[in-house]
User: Fold this.
Amino acid sequence: MGLQDFETWSNFSFTRKSCSTSRGLTAHQRRICRRHLDHMPTVSGGVRMGIEECKHQFRSRRWNCSIREGGPVFGALTLIASRETAFTHAIMSAGISLAISRSCSDGRISSCGCSTATRPKHLHSDWVWGGCAENLEYGYKFAEGFVDVRERERKVKRGSLEQGRQLMNRHNNEAGRRAVIKLSRVTCKCHGVSGSCSLITFWHQLASFREIGDYLREKYDSATEVSVSRRGKLRVGNPGFGVPTALDLVYLEESPNYCLKNETLGSLGTTGRECTRTSNGVESCTILCCGRGYNTKKMVTKERCECKFHWCCQVECNTCVKTEEIYTCK
Amino acid sequence: MTGTVLENLSGRKLAVLISFLLLCQLVCFLIGGLVAPMPANAQNILGTVCKDTTKVKNDTTKWFYNRGKGKCESVDLAQSDLSETDIVFAFQMPTPRESETFDYSRWQQNLIGVLQMDIRYHSQMEIKPHSTLVIDARLAYRNKDDPDDGWKLYTQSVEKRVLDCDIEIKSEDYLYNCTAMPLFELGSLYHDYYLLNIRLPVDKPDMNTHIGHVQDMWVTVINQNGGFTKVWLSLKTIFFPGIVGILIWFWHRIHLLQRKPVLLEEMLLTLGIALCILDLPIEYLTLLFDLPFMLLLSDIRQGFFYASLFSFWVVFAGEHMLIQEVKTKNSLKKYWKHLSAVILGCVSLFIFDMCERGIQLRNPFYSIWVTELGTNLALSFIILAGISTGMYFMFLSFMIWQVFINISKKRQSLPAMCSVRRLHYEGIIYRFKFLMLATMICAAMTVIGFILGQVAEGQWKWNDNIELEYTSAFFTGVYGMWNIYIFALLVLYAPSHKRWPANETNADTQILSEEIEFNRLPIERSEISSLTSFINKATVD
Assistant:
């Protein structure tokens, strides 16, 4: 799935017709969409979750996961196989994988698979016999089938840059799905004789998506540049670096300069972005504004503070009034 | 009597018997590994948040579920302004798959529920360690023929649980790492569908106030796999008549003798009976009746078997001591030290089991680990059982060590003995060493298998290419092994028909012609004492 489709995806309407009319889908994805129509709201929710997380992770960076609202579906960012593309692929894939796993768990999707094999004939007796696989596994497998099929269906010349793009996307999609599994916590219960541990059952507990986002952001920071070899395999560009694992992100091209607005490269520029004056990190005005300087504005804000929560939904807060200076890049 | 079957069996016959038993053992292992599925299956269910609009909250005829006709109005906890009392977490089990509504089969035997909370971290309200969580849990059941809303109350309880959460990275929107809380245990899975409704009441001002921001609630339900039950029960069905048959044969053999059975034979019989009870496939009844006590009963049966096995080992070692104290009656009294360790261990485990699973018969949500007193009580019983097990093994090892010392002493004097007495002692030594070897192998296999199982289970299997189901293979293998072990004991340690060769014509033939057990008749005792004096003499020389 390319970044251009995320917007389409997060606003998907769920009829059989929309599977064929939606512009963001390839032929194979349309087929999966029709077959698993009940999965699609969840897929779309997963994509939306991915976009939100991406925006949160990059809120204070030069590239802020900008997906232009209302713009043309085919954005320009996909022209460049940069780190950012790598991250978006990973986070979307993770979002879909996590969302599917969750929906299977509360029975919202009733057609989640039972085993990894194709639908068995005597499903009910199979379930009685050996139970079903975990939802996490199903989420992983569905996301793999749905997202990666895109990169497989178009035949490209071996060793070409296009093939490199396919390999890179598949690698990063996998990294996203693996992150969901890696961050899930294994929990167990002893239930042998007298509750002893002669019999233990394990299962996976899903992590919060913020945790997955943070993990993938770290992977973004340590992403490896690769190139495509003549034999059609990815190769580490700089031999000094180690070979990336299935959990690491890879990219083919250097990122464009996100300081300046460049529609063809998919960069919105940093003009008008809020920055922090006092810090030294990526969110500082020196870095974010790319040396163009910043405007200062004084604002009085009302904030909720000293909150007290009850377990569910009642939050009692005081309102604090703060005067803040807001800096925006020129 | 001249000895047991073991000593009188020719080498070839013994080899055939042992290889047959080993073959049976291999079959047991392979059945578990290739035919049976995993012993248990876990299903992770995410709670659906339902809106309870009723005025009366303790109405147990009103149920909330998220699938089927009359399903509840589900709300998003993050974006709602409901009061706590209007929120119900609904868990409908089993969850559907492949667009099919599954129902539980009675082959799946039991259902264990584990509760997990997803609690979001907020810097303004960090949860204190060991906060108390109060839950109002209601369990309902429905059968296939009932309408979608035909839920009937199974049990209901207001329970306390200790919420034990920590967090490594204190960052907003991260989840606390909370330990799983045992929620319920059903000893029988009699009905087709179950529904769990959980409320977090706030009846008192300090109730459920320190549990943080509950984002999601998960219940993991674990049930035994039907396939495993089928394989297990088939094994039992095959073993049971075999063990009963061999037991009858054994007892018949003993009755043929013109003496009363000795202690060792009585112990062997007890062990055989204990195994029969363990093998009795009464689980078939659960397919017809609702028998919630099955979990408890299988614990008790298992405990009784272990107790008799441990007692047997002690008595066996003691009876092969080769030293005869004057006027000792071979009764269980002699072993009171060792046996009291066994009994103490078993009784404390039994009390613990009754406190946990016994009370769960009345209230499936009960857990002894929740209250401070209960935890201490449970722990003290378990520690007591552990200490007595340790004591027992100390006694046993000491006894075995003594036997080995005696054996090596006897070895030196063996060449000097007359042939009958030599044969007699060689027989005892052989019997003892054989059992020691067999027991050691069985125990080592059990321990190794268990450890390997823990290691193998700890890893997440991604590829389902591995055809062998290790855990099940371990269970069926070990179960089969102890059955075969006891079968072999009953066969090999039964009294033999055969006499010692008649060509051994010397002074002892007279004794040989009678059916004697060496440590019961006075004549034997004098023999022993003469022997000991002989040894003494030898050492002086």
